[in-house]
Amino acid sequence: MDYLNFSKKEWEILICFWNAQEPLCCSDFSERFNLNRNTSLSVIRKLVNKGILEVASIKMSGSVLARRFQPKVTELEVLQSILNQDQIFAMLQVAIGRLEEKQLAMLMDKITAKKQELSMPKDHQ
């Protein structure tokens, strides 16, 4: 997916869904994020067609059935697809500077495990 070609409104809607952290129907979404309902519905439809949002469930909204949407991709998946190795490394350097001691220890464990995995001969993996 070429996320760099998303419109400003598509990014805005996707980020709102990530922040919502729960499936929302169009009317609830528009109300919560103070966005025009027709614009939201149009952009949500585009993101569903692109495979970025999915229908999580269907619920009663008043007297009608309403589809509840949720992101099909995470922020991390999007970042991994648009950043190259040098950009990821630069981002990690900044992030490491913000970590606490416990988080650094967990990260070191992951780095050690990955180094061991990479140093194993291919037929032992």
TrEMBL record:
Domain of life per record: Bacteria
SUPFAM superfamilies hit by this protein: Winged helix' DNA-binding domain (SSF46785)
Protein name, entry field: BlaI/MecI/CopY family transcriptional regulator
Species of the source: Enterococcus gallinarum
